[in-house]
Amino acid sequence: MTTNHYDVVIVGAGLAGLSSAAYLSSKGKKVLVLERGQLGGRAVTLKIKGFNFNFGAHAIYARDSSVLRTFEKELGLNIDWQDFNPTKAKYDIGDDLTAVPSNVQGLFQTKLLKGIDKVLFTFEILKTMLKVEKGHPHMSIQKWMEKKQVSEDVQDMMLTLASSNFFTREPEKIPSDVFFTYYSRLFTTNKPVSYIGGGWQALINEFVRVIEANQGTIMLKTKVEKALVENDRVVGVVTPEGEFTADEFVCCIPPKELVKVFAETRLEHAVAQHAEYEPTVVMVYDIGLKERIDVPFSYIYDKQNNIFITDISYYDRTCVPEGGQLLQATAYMRQADVGNKEAAEIRKQEIENLYDKHFPGWREKLVVPRVSARAVVQEIKWTMNQKPMPTFFPDYRNLFFAGDWCEGQGQLSELSFSSAWQVSNLILEKDK
């Protein structure tokens, strides 16, 4: 058994772990990253027959105010931004297509609302943009709309927007303050959605480049079996390769894994109370085509069935062989249907029906399909009865937590970046 001491040990090499490791090492910290699997966590890119399949779309929301943009500037990351075109985003409303109101222009073009309802909805969005309406952490968006006596059509529009951006079939359960904070950013940004050229792998490579340039260490296939806790401090972690001690520890693995790491320590109960939650689960059905099927949109959302298709290759040409096309369909899953083979098969058929409707001839051009029947797009689902994990416990000041299950800004990957940014700066402030 070997013992090595570091300034900071980071457990987990997902987006949160890699971004915090890159930032802390760039500030002179001696950093060690321990990862039991592969780099990137759930944010990985898989190459099959010339197509780069991402585990989840490599989309960054409101990138001009994103924490990833801050990391990009601070660390000199080389990111090939591919910005989403809102005019090519459509809702499938049965026998017609209409604009997605993801910005002010879309609000005025959409057919989902008419007359006074469009004015009322625009007014609600305006209040959000001006931060007049902030919602309440103890009131769901459904309860908020009922209290405000919002009309049914406007309610439907707000819940549709929430569903398509929070990856949930239960948007009515989202806390109203989370809802309004999110849309305040989305409607005031100049870059509502952006993709990363080269997918998640390109971003992961950049973080690794910075870590290695600053003498940071990354150990893969190294599972942290338990933490060593003395009084109010974590003093080390145990792996099959040896014990590693540090001044500070950042845990970037889900709470359900943390429970095992902190079993039989003073921290076990504190961690366990954050481990009972339901993740946001979707079915992802990607198809790689040998030839493009040209359509007048790059994003289509089937409002009735809660399924959307994104033409990933429209924004990122590096993910396909020459002349090819990569389409990604995402279908929201009900919690009761997760793990149900019959329900999964029905959902798969619904996705294929949507492909048939909007991309005719795809079956003849199909090179490779990839189906993830149970893809976790966010570790914790934002509902009234599920609260995110704090980034630290006040009684344990050398232990921090980061990831998309933690408190932070935005949704999805932005939660990983924002929580990583917060804990990194908390650690650096100790030197002042």
UniProtKB/TrEMBL annotation:
Ranges of residues in domain Amine oxidase: 15-427
GO MF annotation terms: oxidoreductase activity
Coiled-coil annotated residue ranges, if any: none
Pfam families given in the database record: Amino_oxidase
SUPFAM superfamilies for the chain: FAD/NAD(P)-binding domain
Protein family (similarity comment): Belongs to the carotenoid/retinoid oxidoreductase family. CrtN subfamily.
Name of this protein: NAD(P)/FAD-dependent oxidoreductase
Gene3D superfamilies attached to this UniProt entry: 3.90.660.50, FAD/NAD(P)-binding domain
